[in-house]
Design brief:
Blueprint lengths: L8 E5 L4 H17 L2 E8 L8 H27 L7 E7 L2 H10 L4 E5 L13 H9 L4 E4 L10 E4 L4 H17 L3 E7 L9 H22 L5 E7 L2 H8 L5 E5 L13 H9 L4 E4 L6
């Protein structure tokens, strides 16, 4: 690998599956929009219990050659786009989750994964790899799924007033400006059977809270059209529903109120499994 690694870098996992290819295509388009370097990674593990040593050695060599070929081919595919982005690939025999996490920690601006995979990145969303990456990352994570190639529609962001949702707002406005798109900011709430306040008062308080969360960001991004929505219902259902017409849904890594337990609870799980567009999990970028 001959590449000077940039801190303004997008890391994407690739295993040769269609879903991983769509993730690479999404990551390449994002690199074009943001002027980022693109690093494509094939992380694989080999385990054949009971095999003889010579057979294992031969299979290890074969697996390494397959991984290197996959990376070479996908890098060539990206370069054929003709956009001139700085792209390079690497294959490594190592656990996929820890590899992606380590590369993210090493100064990446974002890590991108597909919603399913094969070989080294099997079951990227439904299995343990995606769970580990999404839960433990210290940089934003994008799960590419649904209408992966969508370039129309708004950037949708879930807002609950937490520090995590403030990070989500920052990334949502940044993504919208890069796409020339608008932002739909949604605050979801579930009204109890016997609310302490009349429903109009509850909605008024939710609206005021949402407006307060957006005030600073609308000033920073005056060129981005913003629609603020207060929605009655479970956060997961609200966000999955709007994902049908969005090009990206952005959510905080943790929250409270309508978006409580976003990654470790049911909301994050349902978004990563059922959203109809890519989902950005807004971990705050931290120094390594």
């Amino acid at each position: 690998m001959n590449a000077t690694v940039s801190e303004h870098r997008i890391v994407v996992g690739y295993d040769g599956s269609d879903e991983a290819r769509w993730a690479v295509d999404w990551a390449a388009a994002e690199a074009e929009r943001t002027g980022s370097q693109l690093q494509i990674v094939n992380a694989y593990q080999i385990s054949w219990p009971g095999a003889y040593y010579v057979a294992v050695a031969e299979q290890i060599t074969a697996a390494r050659e397959v991984a290197e070929r996959l990376v070479t081919e996908i890098v060539a595919r990206v370069r054929e786009r003709g956009t001139g982005i700085d792209v390079f690939g690497v294959s490594v025999e190592a656990p996929p989750a820890s590899t992606l996490l380590d590369l993210g920690d090493a100064g990446a601006r974002m890590v991108v994964v597909g919603n399913r995979g094969a070989g080294g990145l099997t079951n990227l969303v439904m299995g343990s790899v995606s769970q580990q990456v999404a839960t433990h990352s210290r940089v934003p994570i994008v799960v590419v799924r649904g209408r992966a190639a969508a370039v129309d529609g708004p950037v949708v962001v879930g807002v609950d007033g937490s520090a995590s949702s403030d990070t989500a707002l920052a990334l949502a406005f940044e993504a919208a400006r890069a796409r020339g798109a608008g932002v739909i900011a949604i605050r979801a709430h579930v009204t109890p059977a016997q609310p302490a306040l009349p429903l109009p008062d509850v909605e008024g308080q939710e609206r005021a809270a949402l407006d307060a969360s957006l005030a600073d960001w609308t000033q920073r991004y005056p060129d981005v059209k913003v629609e603020a929505l207060v929605a009655a219902g479970r956060a997961a259902k609200v966000l999955v529903d709007v994902s049908h017409t969005a090009q990206l849904v952005v959510v905080g890594s943790r929250g409270h109120g309508g978006f409580a337990g976003l990654l470790l609870g049911s909301v994050g799980q349902q978004l990563m499994q059922h959203a109809e567009c890519p989902v950005l999990i807004a971990h705050e970028r931290k120094a390594s």
